[in-house]
């Protein structure tokens, strides 16, 4: 019946043919299929959706399955689903979906099968890398295809216009459209994988491999910004790893394997940073490696430390820190000499030569001379920090601290035997610059040695981790050192020397460069030199003249001049001096009085200016004070808030510690109650933590368990011996009892068998008597069975007939209902078709009416246009005729006759003309003053008729002809325009 109803419902849907019903039907089916009973069904459904091109729906279906809590138990099907899921994510570049799915899958297989997560992540990264390489190859192929001679032959006009407007080349556009999206997705893939694996001790190798691949990605495609972000991400992961130490799957850095993986990652980061030229990031990588070594308090292998110091040499050389550069080379020399058994003599000479030349390249003067106290303290802290990075022990106390310096470095080179390993050229250079005193020809002797040293270079065959040694990079610094040494030695011999002689003595630089080097040396208190370009000489002097003597040389010079004046002009006697003064006393008093008055006014003005300045300063100070007060109040509020937060955190921590201490004391008391020893553990007050007490309780339980096991073993041994003795004594007794029991059981068996036989005979006799008694009721039983069977059969037949009649009635009613429904549907459809037909007919009738009206209007308009055209032509003819008449009248002579009205009239009977028409100007024109009297003296005439716009004689508005009046000619004036516009209306 249900099948019949479903069939009839489907038939009705097909009859109706509505798209909305079928859409709702399919939506319900999809909702039913959204919850899959098995993961295999979801995978099959996703493959079907992919086949029909609905990848988004397939991805959503798999995402719902993976994030569902229903499938939290790992199985092989989930791994296949994850493979398909990451393929869809890569194909559609959905990084966020991939991250969510991988996080959920990590939760599922973290404790069951972590290798499955590793395989899925490897597959994910492989797909992302492959698609990025494919996009890059496509972009290169497109670039090669566009690299032709005639661009107009291969490009469309719109492409050329786009390239001119946008201003970008074909390669840039192809990279932006093809390569950049896939590179972004690949970078997002690396970040996602690192985020997922950052705190997983079981996948440390995969984490390291991902970091290495990300570094190679940045190196291959020169992605400096992404490299900085990657280094920061890895640095934050390690910081969080040390911050949260109570995580369950946290990697243990004290393990050798984990430490080696983390160190390898940092060393790879250091290498890529130096290859990309990111020296600041390389230095931060050095600090990361040093922090990792300090964290685990374990020094890595010598080969890694050589890489560490080799990169340090490059970083310090790029930052012009020659001193630390030399110390790093010294550490490389010590490591190679002590641990590298395959080191050849040539490589050892190159390394030693690099150490000595790097030490000689350090400037011989104090770099911190003239600095402030704060700068000196910062320099000391910086030196201590660099010494720790390089690996040199420095005294922790400030007063005993030995700062890294050039002198200590050179003495250490001699003490460690580095000078015995260098080449002969380097030895000669060292002796020339440090031990010899040659003020005239030092630079001339150093120059050939430097030329030989610049040719010494090469790749170290036995030290693969150290870059190629280039001794020529130290030549500029050594030439500067030779210049300083020569100037120092010359200053000890000469006081004055010509500039030309110095230029000849120093062949490395021009005198301008020598002057810059000298200025720097003077500023660092290494030399005392004055250069006089006017005299062309250089003056050398003691440092005290420049530093201390000049402080009071003016006062000494004044005293000397005063003594000389006294000697030349001795002082006169007192009487004569007083007489000379009294003679000019009045004049002196007057001048002094005027000077004092002027001084008073100046003082007043200065006071006013000073008061105004003080007022302005007070206002400025008041504003600054208010700002400072506001800043102080804000800082105080922040401090109070911070203190409140700190107190709250301390209170919470104190409550947690108190709670843990109470729990620990309770556990300790419980352990004491369970313990049966007389000696109890002693509480140490606040020092006893929960963990310590738990360890004590566990130790106590372990001790009690061991004691119980020993007691049980001893008791088992005792019981074993006792049981063995008992069994040896009881063996004969058991054998006798067994025989006696056999005899008793045989007699008992014989007696019970006789009793059973007698009882069987008695039961058989009783059963025979019962059978005879019941045999008389057999006929009555048969009659009752027949009667019951016939009555039940009649009842069954009656109910069967009623059921058949009821079913037939239901079928007939449903047939009538379906027939009525079909008739109703047919009626509604017919009514809709009739209404639609009537509507279409009405619309057609309206369209015909509109078209007819438009046609009539067009015909009427055509007639009006034709009438207007005829009127226009008639008007033109009348105008032309009137113009010809006027021209004819003007050509022939006219005679003026007096009329009775006083107005002159033309002979021809034309319109009256004024008497002075020949001489009078036209209306509206300028009339000269002499002619105005003649015009006024003439006989009064009527004013001339007004002319219309078209030059014809004007008439009143009531006399204007209409275009309908065709019996009289009219001029084409304003009235004609009115009639024309009226005809148009």
UniProtKB/TrEMBL annotation:
Its main location: cytoplasm. InterPro entries: EIF3A (IPR027512), eIF3a_PCI_TPR-like (IPR054711), PCI_dom (IPR000717). The keyword Coiled coil applies. Pfam families: eIF3a_PCI_TPR-like, PCI. Residues 907-924, 971-985 have a biased composition (Low complexity). Gene3D superfamilies: 1.25.40.860, UVR domain. GO terms for molecular function: mRNA binding; translation initiation factor activity. It comes from the Eukaryota. One of its GO terms (biological process) is translation reinitiation. Residues 833-985 are annotated as: Disordered. Residues 833-891, 956-969 have a biased composition (Basic and acidic residues). One of its GO terms (cellular component) is eukaryotic translation initiation factor 3 complex, eIF3e. Residues 348-545 form the PCI domain. Keywords: Coiled coil, Cytoplasm, Initiation factor, Protein biosynthesis, RNA-binding. The keyword Cytoplasm applies. Residues 125-152, 625-674, 698-725 form a coiled coil. It is found in: Cytoplasm. Component of the eukaryotic translation initiation factor 3 (eIF-3) complex. RNA-binding component of the eukaryotic translation initiation factor 3 (eIF-3) complex, which is involved in protein synthesis of a specialized repertoire of mRNAs and, together with other initiation factors, stimulates binding of mRNA and methionyl-tRNAi to the 40S ribosome. The eIF-3 complex specifically targets and initiates translation of a subset of mRNAs involved in cell proliferation. Belongs to the eIF-3 subunit A family. This is Eukaryotic translation initiation factor 3 subunit A.
């Amino acid at each position: 019946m249900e099948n019949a109803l479903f069939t009839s419902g489907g038939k009705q849907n097909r009859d109706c043919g509505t798209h909305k019903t079928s859409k709702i039907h399919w939506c319900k089916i999809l909702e039913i299929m959204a919850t899959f009973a098995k993961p295999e069904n979801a995978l099959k459904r996703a493959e079907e959706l992919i086949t029909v091109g609905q990848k988004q729906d397939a991805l959503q279906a798999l995402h719902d399955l993976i994030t569902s809590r229903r499938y939290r138990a790992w199985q092989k099907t989930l791994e296949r689903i994850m493979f398909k899921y990451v393929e869809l994510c890569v194909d559609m570049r959905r990084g966020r979906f991939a991250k969510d799915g991988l996080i959920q899958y990590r939760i599922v297989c973290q404790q069951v099968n972590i290798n499955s997560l590793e395989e899925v992540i490897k597959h994910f990264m492989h797909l992302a890398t492959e698609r990025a390489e494919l996009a890059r190859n496509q972009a290169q192929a497109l670039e090669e295809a566009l690299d032709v001679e005639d661009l107009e032959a291969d490009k469309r006009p719109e492409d050329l216009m786009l390239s001119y407007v946008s201003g970008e080349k074909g390669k840039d556009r192809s990279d932006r459209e093809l390569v950049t999206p896939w590179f972004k997705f690949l970078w997002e893939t690396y970040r996602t994988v690192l985020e997922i694996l950052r705190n997983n001790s079981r996948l440390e190798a995969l984490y390291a491999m991902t970091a290495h691949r990300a570094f190679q990605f940045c190196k291959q495609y020169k992605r400096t910004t992404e490299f900085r972000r990657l280094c920061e991400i890895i640095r934050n992961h390690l910081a969080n790893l040390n911050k949260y130490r109570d995580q369950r799957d946290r990697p243990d850095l004290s393990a050798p394997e984990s430490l080696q993986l983390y160190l390898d990652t940092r060393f790879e980061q250091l290498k890529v940073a130096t290859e990309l030229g990111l020296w600041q990031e390389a230095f931060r990588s050095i600090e990361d490696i040093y922090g990792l070594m300090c964290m685990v308090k374990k020094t890595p292998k010598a080969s890694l430390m050589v890489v560490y110091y080799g990169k340090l040499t490059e970083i310090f050389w790029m930052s012009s820190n020659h001193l630390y550069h030399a110390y790093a080379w010294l550490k490389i020399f010590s490591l190679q000499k002590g641990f590298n058994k395959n080191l050849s003599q040539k490589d050892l000479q190159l390394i030693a030569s690099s150490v000595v030349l790097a030490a000689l390249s350090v400037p011989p003067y104090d770099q911190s001379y003239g600095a402030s106290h704060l700068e000196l303290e910062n320099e000391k802290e910086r030196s201590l920090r660099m010494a720790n990075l390089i690996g040199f022990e420095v005294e922790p106390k400030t007063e005993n601290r030995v700062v890294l310096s050039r002198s200590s470095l050179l003495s250490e080179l001699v003490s460690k035997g580095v000078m015995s390993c260098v080449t002969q050229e380097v030895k000669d250079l060292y002796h020339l610059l440090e031990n010899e005193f040659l003020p005239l020809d030092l630079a001339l002797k150093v120059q050939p040695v430097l030329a030989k040293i610049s040719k010494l270079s090469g790749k170290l065959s036995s030290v693969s981790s150290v870059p190629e040694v280039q001794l020529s990079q130290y030549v500029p610094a050594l030439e500067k050192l030779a210049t300083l040494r020569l100037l120092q030695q010359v200053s000890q011999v000469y006081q004055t020397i010509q500039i030309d002689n110095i230029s000849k003595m120093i062949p490395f630089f021009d005198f301008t460069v020598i002057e810059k080097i000298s200025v720097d040396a003077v500023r660092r208190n290494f030399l005392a030199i004055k250069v006089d370009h006017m005299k062309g000489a250089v003056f050398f002097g003691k440092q005290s003249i420049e530093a201390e003597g000049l402080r009071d040389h003016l006062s000494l010079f004044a005293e000397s001049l005063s003594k000389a004046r006294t000697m030349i002009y001795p002082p006169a006697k007192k009487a004569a001096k007083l007489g000379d003064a009294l003679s000019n006393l009045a004049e002196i008093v007057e001048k002094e009085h005027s000077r004092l008055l002027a001084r008073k006014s100046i003082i007043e003005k200065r006071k006013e200016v000073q008061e105004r300045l003080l007022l302005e300063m007070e206002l400025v100070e008041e504003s600054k004070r208010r700002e400072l007060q506001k800043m102080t109040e804000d800082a105080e509020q922040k401090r109070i808030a911070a203190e409140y937060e700190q107190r709250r955190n301390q209170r919470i921590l104190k409550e947690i510690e108190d709670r843990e201490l109470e729990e620990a004391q309770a556990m300790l008391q419980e352990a004491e109650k369970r313990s049966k020893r007389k000696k109890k553990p002693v509480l140490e007050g606040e020092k006893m933590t929960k963990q310590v007490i738990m360890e004590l309780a566990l130790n106590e339980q372990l001790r009690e368990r061991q004691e119980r096991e020993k007691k049980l073993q001893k008791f088992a041994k005792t019981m074993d011996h006792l049981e063995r003795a008992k069994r040896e004594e009881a063996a004969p007794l058991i054998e006798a009892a067994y025989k006696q029991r056999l005899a008793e059981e045989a007699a008992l068996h014989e007696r019970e068998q006789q009793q059973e036989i007698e009882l069987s005979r008695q039961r058989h006799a009783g059963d025979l008597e019962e059978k005879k008694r019941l045999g008389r009721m057999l006929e009555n039983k048969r009659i009752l069975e027949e009667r019951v069977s016939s009555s039940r059969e009649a009842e069954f037949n009656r109910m069967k007939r009623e059921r058949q009649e009821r079913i037939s009635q239901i079928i007939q009613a449903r047939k009538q209902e379906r027939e009525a429904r079909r008739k109703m549907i047919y009626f509604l459809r017919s009514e809709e078709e009739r209404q639609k037909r009537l509507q279409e007919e009405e619309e057609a009738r309206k369209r015909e009416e509109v078209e007819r009206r438009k046609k009539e209007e067009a015909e009427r308009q055509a007639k009006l246009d034709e009438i207007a055209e005829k009127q226009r032509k008639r008007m033109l003819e009348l105008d032309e005729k009137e113009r010809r008449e006027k021209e004819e009248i003007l050509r022939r002579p006219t005679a003026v006759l007096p009329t009775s009205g006083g107005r002159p009239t033309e002979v021809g009977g034309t319109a009256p003309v004024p008497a002075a028409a020949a001489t009078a100007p036209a209306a509206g024109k300028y009339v000269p003053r002499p002619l105005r009297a003649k015009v006024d003296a003439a006989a009064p005439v009527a004013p001339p008729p007004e002319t219309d716009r078209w030059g014809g004689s004007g008439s009143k508005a009531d006399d204007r002809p209409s275009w309908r009046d065709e019996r009289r000619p009219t001029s084409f004036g304003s009235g004609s325009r009115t009639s024309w516009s009226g005809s148009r209306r």
